[in-house]
Each structure stands twice: as C-alpha cells, then as structure tokens.
Design brief:
Largest sheet: 7 strands, mixed
Helix content: 25-40%
Oligomer: single chain
Number of helices: 17
Radius of gyration: 23 Å
C-alpha cells in the first residue's frame, strides 16, 4: 500500500491534470491515476510513422493575450510554451449542386459573401453578423471565474452588470438553435448549410457566434503539435510542481470508510489512500461503477435517467502520401445521396486537413480525417456492445469509397489509418455513449450550464467530481476551469489563500 496523499485524482484528462496542477500550487500532495497509457482522455492523438492522427480537438479558446481563459493556460504551462496557429475562416460547406459557403471570421467579409449567395436574405445575414460582432467583447469565462457553490449575492450582481450589455443578444441568440436559424433563410442552400456551420444543428446560435468572434479576436487557435503537445505541456507543468502520475492503471473502486472517501482500489487490487478523492473521469462510470450507485441525489438520477443529448462521432483518420496543403482545413459536404453509417442514412460528412500545422505529417504528405456526428444508439443497435476491428467495419469502406470519389486513387496513398466509433471511444475512454464532450450544449441545456451540476454527493465526505459531465456543454477551457475551481473550494474549506503560482 502506498503512503497517503492529500488528493488522489482519477483521470489524466484536461480537468484532472488542471486539478493536479492547482493542487500542487496550493500545497496539496496529489497523485493522478489514469487508465490509459498517456494523458489527455478525450483530447487524444496517435502518432504513427511520422503522422499525428489527431482526433481530440479543433479550436481552443484562450490563446489570445488578455483574452478570456488566457491566464488559465499561462498558469497551466501551455502558453507561451505551445504556439497557437490561426485561420481567418472556420470552415467551408459544400452543397450538392456546387454551392460553397465559407464561414469567414471577419463579419464584413462574411456578410458580403453570404449576400452574394443569397441576396434575398440580406437582412437576416446582417442581423447574424451584428450578433457575432457583439460577442467579440463577451467574456465566456465569466461563470467559471469562481466556484458557483461559493458565489455570493455580490458575485451574481457583478456578473449581472457584466452581462447587462449583452442581454438582448443572449436572449435572442441563446434561445435559438442553428437548426431554428436555418429555417429563417429563404435560400435553399443556406437553409441546409447554416445548421452545420458549427458542426451540430442543436447548438445555440450564440455559441457559434462566440466561436467566430473569438477566431476574429485571435483567441481561438489550434496548438502546434496538436492534442498531444497541448496535454503534454500541462502534464509537464504538473510534474514540475511535484505531482505524481500513474498511467495504465485502472481504478476499480473508490474506497469508503463509513460515509467518507479514503482512497481508491485499482483493478490489480492495489490501494492508494488519500484524504480526498476527486473523480475527473466519466460521470456515469464514477457514479454507478466506482461508487456502485450509492450517494446519488434526485437531480443526478434525473439527469442520467433522461434522454439529454450527447455528441458522438465516427472518425476515420488517415495518413496519406499526398500533398493536400491547398485544400480547406475544414470542410463539410452536404450530400445528395446519403451514406449508410451504422444502418442509418448520413447526409453530411466533414473533412479536416491538418495542413495548418505541417509538423503533423512528413514533408509532402498529409493527415486527413473524415468525421460525422452519429448517434450512439445506431451503433449499439447495429453492433450491440462491440463491433469487428475498426479497420474492418463496412462503414470504413463506405467512407473510403466516398473519399476515392473526392480524391481519385486516394486508397493507394493511405499509409496509416486510425478509426474511432462511438462504441470504441466509449471503450477507450469510458465516456458514456461515446460522448465527446459530456452533455451537448443546446438551447434546452443552456440553463444547466449557467446553474452547473453539483460536484459533491449527498452524505459522502471528501469526494468530488469534475470535468465535462459536471459542466454541460463543457469545452477544454471549461474542463480546466472545473479542476481549478474545485481546488479553489478546497482551499476555502481548509482556510487557505488560493494561489495560481
């Protein structure tokens, strides 16, 4: 049995690594226990033969100096150590009849471009672009700057004053989904394309507007070296602060004495004792496996028993002996003839070329990823709880056949391939139903994001949960802030002054 530490943290994703860093900064001895072979959790990448098969992130907020979330990445050792790369547009969307929508971050360019496509929609386009400009000054970190459990009336009043100039925009665009917005366009192509501008149609329009605004501010970029460089920077910060990490070490159970968490038992029956236990891994796995369904409260039972939306993907990531650097870095194709994926028709397919970062592929070669949003239930219906080896799936061949139409002869150029389905993502990360980001942020779950989900369980002492299952719509910066704010709470409980150095 190892010696007792102050904290044992289950999971080395961004939230777990952040919690470990802030714990060490504040004088707590901590250990991180991770089931996978390396850091990152859902923020994953796989290097093969000089290719970085990147599937864990797209854009990260906070790389612009003086911008929201920037100080968090400074504290966690990401900036300025990891350079961030920027584009002047988000993506391109292609219609079945040759139409192309380029989602420029510059609203003047975007408005001119969209009006050229659909002059009859000029008024709506102007309203949309005005909304993006409004959100350029909006601080998305405002609700994460202090633990919600510690906010006072004065804190909420301060937030109210900061939000006041944006009330009309938040009310208008926060209650409208991209799917709703698409129906307001007269142009048939924009009716279909607008819901997919920001990957999933259910997202509130304000979320997409904020992404474009932050792109234009230089506060949303891609880390050079991809997911692995990003999480490795946080891992190194944690280790430099004296923390300990154990990889390939699955936790089997949270150890309880009475109604108090006292450590963890591993799958090999070893135990690590601690004064407090923090779960930074999958929420359902934590509640129903590590804690065996004990200590649930009504709100959690309702949430996990509901049909709240989640976001799962089917990804085919390729290293190809072909130079695709001239192609758009992100494109979505709206298909006339659907592809059959897990027994269901798929009318959209996305392509990502990581040409923004030449270091992710050997010279003259490229990383290409095909991805699509696909419901977990379709895969479970088609394959039960598992499926054949990923590379042998008929869905992979369906995607490769489509790619060969787009890039004749591409199959002969494939040198490496990594496939991830909702089922394999669940198996690898234990993320319930293969979710990429916990609960999907929609106009219906937006109030949950504002209110937050309790991090503590009734009747259980010295235990807490963090990560995207406790922050609906969780993104990478919010996952990091989740770890930060829990340590802030612990310092308050222990009468310590919270510090970030």
């Amino acid at each position: 049995m190892a010696d007792t530490t102050d904290l044992v943290i289950i999971g080395a994703g961004v939230s777990g690594l952040a919690a470990g860093c802030y714990a060490q900064m504040n004088g707590y001895r901590s250990r991180i226990i991770e089931a996978q072979a390396g850091p990152g959790g859902s923020c994953w990448a796989d290097w093969q033969q000089g290719y970085c098969l990147e599937g864990g992130l797209h854009y990260i907020f906070g790389n612009g100096p003086g911008q929201p979330f920037h100080s968090t990445w400074e504290e966690l050792g990401v900036v300025p150590q990891v350079p961030f790369l920027h584009e002047d547009y988000l993506a391109q969307l292609y219609g079945p009849n040759g139409e192309v929508l380029t989602v420029h971050s510059d609203t003047e360019v975007l408005a001119e471009h969209m009006k050229a496509l659909a002059p009859q929609d000029g008024k709506l386009i102007d309203q949309f672009c005005k909304g993006v400009r409004n959100f350029k000054a909006f601080d998305l970190s405002i609700l994460q700057q202090k633990p919600k459990s510690m906010m006072t009336g004065a804190d909420w009043a301060r937030i109210g004053r900061q939000v006041l100039p944006f009330v009309n925009s938040l009310g208008k665009w926060g209650s409208l989904s991209l799917q709703d917005l698409g129906t307001k366009f007269k142009d048939p192509f924009l009716q279909r394309a607008v819901p997919h501008m920001f990957s999933w149609p259910e997202v509130p329009v304000m979320v997409g507007m904020s992404l474009l605004a932050y792109l234009d501010n230089g506060n949303a970029g891609f880390p050079q070296g991809g997911s692995l460089a990003f999480v490795k920077a946080i891992e190194q910060r944690y280790l430099s602060l004296g923390g300990e990490i154990y990889y390939s070490t699955p936790v089997e159970q949270v150890l309880l004495e009475g109604d108090e968490a006292v450590g963890v038992r591993l799958a090999d029956q070893r135990e690590y004792r601690a004064s407090r236990v923090i779960s930074a891994c999958d929420g359902r796995h934590t509640l129903f496996h590590l804690l065996q369904g004990e200590y649930l409260h009504r709100r959690l039972e309702k949430i996990y028993g509901s049909d709240l939306p989640m976001y799962s993907q089917f990804q085919v990531c390729l290293g190809v002996n072909r130079d695709l650097s001239a192609d758009p870095h992100w494109s979505t194709y709206l298909l006339e003839e659907p592809l059959t994926i897990a027994g269901a028709p798929q009318f959209e397919i996305g392509l990502k070329h990581y040409n923004i970062d030449p270091s992710l592929a050997p010279p003259g070669k490229s990383v290409l990823m095909a991805l699509m949003t696909t419901p977990y239930r379709n895969w479970q219906t088609a394959y039960g709880d598992g499926h054949p080896p990923e590379n042998e799936l008929p869905e992979v061949q369906t995607v490769l056949d489509w790619l060969n139409q787009r890039y004749p002869g591409l199959s002969s150029d494939i040198e490496v391939m990594q496939v991830r389905t909702p089922l394999s993502h669940e198996r690898t990360t234990r993320n319930w139903q293969g979710s990429s980001c916990g609960w999907l942020l929609t106009k219906d779950t937006l109030p949950m994001m504002v209110q937050g989900i309790p991090k503590r369980l009734p009747g259980l002492k010295n235990f807490a949960m963090i990560g995207h299952w406790t922050e609906p719509g969780g993104s990478i910066p919010i996952a990091a802030m989740s770890g930060r704010n829990l340590v802030y709470e612990l310092c308050h409980e222990d009468s310590k002054t919270f510090t970030t150095v």
